[in-house]
Automatic annotation (TrEMBL):
Residues 32-64, 66-95 form the 4Fe-4S ferredoxin-type domain. Pfam families: Fer4_11. InterPro entries: 4Fe4S_Fe-S-bd, 4Fe4S_Fe_S_CS, ET_IronSulfur_Cluster-Binding. It comes from the Bacteria. This is 4Fe-4S ferredoxin-type domain-containing protein. It comes from Labilibaculum filiforme.
Length: 439
């Protein structure tokens, strides 16, 4: 950990926020498990996803050194870059409420010195210089290759050690379940306790856009006060998710590269134009607002393109676009469209739960039963055409969508080297290739 200490001393980082980390294949230091380490910080990628996707344009590239520099004064603390980076380089600092990361010791290398981590390493595991990077050498176990051209050259293990291995004459095989219990529990960057505001915000986007669409069809009234109240609540919910709320205006600066910028801009435009349309009764404004509304639904779903899913499925039943179509179909009372969306959502949901069960992941059967009922009961009420069927069914439907959307965040994660190493070790355990010393 000398490189970690050297980096921290040079940059004066918080003790709980290390810009450089040593990724360990045997983090529990068990004598019978493989030993393998590699040190990583920011790889200053050629196609850097942190810089490309930051909505606030808080990143830039130093032309002289190629370093990706994070500008603290421009950061809004939305943590989107921590999702985008597969190397876990940007770190969110709870005390400052913004992100920070390795700056490549740009001042030192500009003066012809080595980065602090290189000088601190006592065994020569790190070096610094300019050379052509061989992409095949990215295939080191645990190193994520996402095609973003990181500026790092990894020297591969010797051919006979292409994957970490250790053999003991008196060792016995360890079960996959026991091995998993030994592994450290890695805290996910995506968790429901942090993302509950986004659950409500994304459903508010779907609800407001579908309300406007149904209003355009002449099927439902759209009073200004209720629309304004829900809009303000939606904006308040999304503001709770960012560290520097007074910098919220920077959200929309990267329309060219960031889906998060596009989401906030298109939804804000939708709210403003819809409010103006309600006040002026100008139908043309309603159509323009609707265009922004549809794009905001697409943008919300695209924001989560970096996440990996426990079920490994591409399409999710809680996608905001599907929810918006479902709300719209219900508001205009179009049974055929309602039935099609219900069938699609229900099929995707059941398929996902079966997949989770096969993978022995938590799938909450009782909660799942409630979610299925929340799809079936409103359709029955709509078919009966009772006077209160529309408001009651929408409440039940909304409860079901909250469950589905909450599960979306619970079942999602972000790729990191540490998680890749854990998965590699689990896979070796399942194949019976990991042994533990007999005691």
């Amino acid at each position: 950990m000398a490189c970690v200490a050297g980096c921290s001393i040079e940059n004066g980082t918080d003790l709980l926020v290390n810009w450089r980390e040593v990724n360990c294949h045997n983090k529990i230091k068990h004598p019978g498990l493989p030993v393998f380490h590699f040190s990583l910080a920011c790889n200053h990628c050629e196609d850097a996803p942190c810089m490309k996707n930051c909505p606030a344009l808080a990143y830039s590239r130093d032309e002289k050194t190629g370093a990706i520099i994070h500008h603290a004064e421009a950061c809004i603390g939305c943590t989107y870059c921590t999702w985008a980076c597969p190397y876990d380089a940007p770190k969110f600092n709870e005390s400052t409420k913004i992100v920070e990361k390795c700056n490549f010791c740009v001042d030192r290398i500009s003066e012809g010195k080595n980065p602090a981590c290189v000088d601190a390493c006592p065994v020569g595991a790190l070096s610094f210089g300019r050379e052509d990077v061989i992409e095949e050498n990215y295939l080191t176990p645990g190193f994520v290759n996402m095609g973003i051209k990181p500026s790092i050259q990894l020297i591969p293990l010797r051919e006979e050690h292409s994957t970490p291995a250790i053999e003991n004459i008196d060792a016995v095989e360890i079960s996959a379940e026991k091995l998993e219990s030994y592994l450290p529990k890695i805290k996910s960057k995506v968790s429901l306790d942090k993302e509950w505001t986004l659950v409500l915000f994304t459903l508010a986007v779907a609800g407001l856009v579908s309300w406007q669409a149904a209003h355009l069809f002449g099927m439902i009234e759209m009073p200004l006060v209720p629309f304004a109240v829900i809009s303000i609540l939606a904006i308040a919910l999304t503001s709770l998710h960012i560290g520097k709320k007074w910098r919220m205006w920077r959200f929309i600066l990267n329309l060219k590269g960031s889906w998060l910028s596009r989401e906030i801009f298109s939804f804000s435009a939708f709210l403003g134009l819809t409010g103006l349309q309600i006040i002026t009764q100008n139908q043309m404004l309603a159509y323009v607002a609707m265009a922004f509304g549809i794009f905001s639904l697409i943008s919300v779903d695209m924001v989560y393109k970096f996440l990996t899913r426990k079920d490994e499925l591409v399409v999710h039943s809680g996608m905001v676009s599907l929810t918006g179509i479902l709300f719209f179909a219900w508001l205009i009372e179009m049974p055929i469209l309602v039935e099609l969306i219900l069938l699609l959502k229900g099929s995707l949901y059941i398929w996902r739960k079966i997949s989770l069960r096969k993978k022995k992941e938590n799938y909450f059967p009782v909660l799942s039963s409630i979610r299925i009922l929340c799809l079936l009961i409103p359709y029955v009420l709509l078919d009966l055409q009772l006077a209160l069927s529309l408001p009651v069914s929408l409440v039940i439907l909304f409860i079901g969508e909250i469950i589905d959307r909450s599960e979306f965040y619970y079942e999602s994660d972000v790729i990191t080297p540490e998680k890749e190493l854990n998965e590699l070790l689990k896979e070796k355990g399942k194949r019976g290739k990991v042994k533990v010393i007999k005691r």
